[in-house]
Amino acid sequence: MEVNLYMPHLMLQEYVLSISTVKASLSKGINDVITPYPPTPFQSLIFYCNNPISMGRTEEDSFRKQPPTVLIGPQFSRVNIKVHSQLSAVRVDFLPGGMYRMLGIPMYELFDDGFDALDFFGGKMRIINEQLQNTPNLEECKNIVEKFLLNQVTKLRELLPIDSALRMLLNTNGNMLIRKTASFSCLSIKQFERKCKERIGMNPKMFARILKFSKAYRLHESCPQLHWTQIAYEARYHDQMHMIRDFKTFAGVNPSVIEQQLLSTPLRMQKDLCY
């Protein structure tokens, strides 16, 4: 799988964390590959330029083909992703609070689900989808997406101290005291928790747990030779048992099981996520 990360345009950097292109081709004779996809800390827009993936919940046997552009709200539960023959996509990951500032919709209303972006952007998104389907060059697809995002800048809600504080929490992979994060927001703890549910869809402690878990999971995807004890240390877990607890919560299984599941697929969907 080939992933290219791009620094967003300067005007986008107050609400967009990163833009990436993703390209994968399955080996000849292999039509589908299923890979696990636990929650990440991001709210995202994913633009499929050819053949959208299918997505299934771990408790379900069926997979649903995704729309051409998917809006992903705050994530809590693991899903499984089925890639069909080829994958060609542009992914936009927003800074904490960035999607809220763009849409003006409380993120708890989008909690733990994905949505057809047409329902939020209407005809503008239909035009973008048509352009992407007729653009074979992925870098040019990225430029089309970036132009769309630039058109949203004038509609953004106000940037507040809480947005900067949540970015600090993101940059420390969740390893900052919630009390300290709230102080950077110029809010009381209760006000901070209420604003977090509006802007990121969950309370700050849960967001910090997902940040730390995501660090550990991505470390395993990118460095499978690392022992789980070392991964727990690198992700700054208090001990390995706390990491195992989070894997059971967010990946649905303990680390040794996810390790075996990843051995059965050639795709690593999260190791190149950057923050």
Describe this structure as you would to a colleague.
This protein has 275 residues and is an alpha+beta fold. It has a domain at 2-155: Jelly Rolls (Sandwich). The chain has 11 helices and 10 strands. It has a 6-stranded antiparallel beta sheet. The longest helix is centred in the last third of the chain and has 19 residues, at 204-222. It is globular, with a radius of gyration of 18 Å.
Keywords, please?
20% strand, single chain, 4-stranded antiparallel sheet, Jelly Rolls, 275 residues, 11 helices, alpha+beta, globular, 6-stranded antiparallel sheet
Order of helices and strands: EEEEEEEEEHEHHHHHHHHHH
Query: Biggest sheet, strands in spatial order?
Result: 1-2-9-4-7-10
User: Which regions contain 5 or more consecutive residues with pLDDT less than 50?
Assistant: none
On the 0 to 100 scale, the average pLDDT is: 95
Q: Give the end-to-end Cα distance, rounded to a whole number of Å.
A: 20 Å
Q: What is the compact description of this entry?
A:
This protein is an alpha+beta fold and 275 residues long. It is built from eleven helices and ten strands.
Helices, strands, pairings?
Layout: E1 2-6, E2 16-25, E3 32-37, E4 44-48, E5 54-57, E6 64-65, E7 69-72, E8 79-84, E9 86-94, H1 98-103, E10 114-116, H2 118-121, H3 123-133, H4 138-150, H5 161-171, H6 178-184, H7 189-199, H8 204-222, H9 228-234, H10 240-250, H11 255-263
Antiparallel strand pairs: 1-2, 2-9, 3-8, 4-7, 4-9, 5-6, 5-8, 7-10
Helix pairs in contact: 5-6, 6-7, 8-9, 8-10
